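Ticket #195: bound-state structure for glycinamide ribonucleotide.
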Amino acid sequence: MKRVAILLSGGGSNMVALVRSMTGDHPARPCLVGSNDPEAGGLRRAAELGVPTVAIDHRPFKGDRPGFEAALTAALEEAAPDIVALAGFMRILTPGFVDRWAGRLLNIHPSLLPKYRGLDTHARAIAAGDTEAGCTVHEVTAALDDGPILGQARVPILPEDTPAALAARVLVQEHRLYPLVLRRFAEGRRDRIDL
Ligand code: GAR
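RESOLUTION: The complex was predicted; output attached.
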């Protein structure tokens, strides 16, 4: 059975989708949910789901990203995950951290990569006049929102869309895509899926 750690910074709706998916004949189980924000709603939701949680507050490490990541790595090592899934984890990771977990580090990003790396993806897609948006699950490499794409899901952008309305439509697809990709990844599959 593969062990999955999930890192988040916010409400954790993707974490909930991932944790709920890991039952029955699924080849993985959640071993830890971690956050850089002790107040993150996702930590409470994880505890309610019976998953061990850890908070490594990034604020005392201001100006010391490697120090923050060393503390995070120590917590992860204790949980011994085979896979680390970033699910709305809003801290940029150094190459040192990425190397430590290379080949087992996944991320979900709310755009059709390689378009719109970084923040405000939905507002940027609307401003560009795009007719579709979506989300991407990819392996994490040292470059921001880069790395081999494992899956994408697409949604239309409607004429009256606001960034919030579009984000909500994309999030529904995130909750479909990420569990599917995680399961395949845990089975050793790296081929790309498109929804
Ligand atoms: C999701 O939309 C995820 O794709 C995005 O944050 C949201 C987290 O929501 N991630 C990023 O922007 C990463 N750069 P959640 O906490 O409800 O899963």
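RESOLUTION NOTES: Residues 8, 10-14, 42, 87-88, 108-110, 135, 171, 174 surround glycinamide ribonucleotide (CB under 6 Å).
TICKET STATUS: resolved
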